[in-house]
Amino acid sequence: MSRANDPKLNEPNTETNTDAIDCLLDDLCLQMLHLTEEHSAQQLALERHMNRSRLLLARIRLQAGTTSGATSARLSSSEPYRAHCRLLEQSGSSNCKLIRYDLETSGCRLAPVNRIFGALVSRSLRMACDKWERCLEQVVESVNVQRELQGVLRAMELLKWARQRGHTV
Predict the structure, then answer these.
(1) How many domains in the chain?
(2) Is 59's pLDDT higher than 70?
(3) Using H for helix, E for strand and C for coil, what is the string for 10-31?
(4) Of residues 137, 139, 115, 150, the one with CA closest to residue 28
């Protein structure tokens, strides 16, 4: 009997395929654990920054008193407001990127804190504004890690399905 007609040689090596799938699943499982840890750390950092920002804004409001009507005095409904940042999905991947417009060179955009409170903004209010902007950046980073984690979970499900069916990798 020739080697080409030998049924044992033409049959796929299922042990090797399942071993390769198991190794890939182990790697994906480790990657999933690292991503889960990173996502949890980002969520904790985000909550910490948001709480600090809220506390700072509450302190500013307490110091300003209730007679301050800057918000109601400065917000006009006749003029449209434009975003000073934009969220874009990068082509070829599921990651998002936060793009900020240059507020100083663009004559039609003002920083939100300047639009509401005018040119003389206190240092503490500027700090609170900066903290909120950092929170927005952290949200985008957290979303990117979460999307990567979802991709790893999908890959794990496909590999499990392939192992059950006895397909090659």
Answers:
(1) 1
(2) yes
(3) HCCCHHHHHHHHHHHHHHHHHH
(4) 150
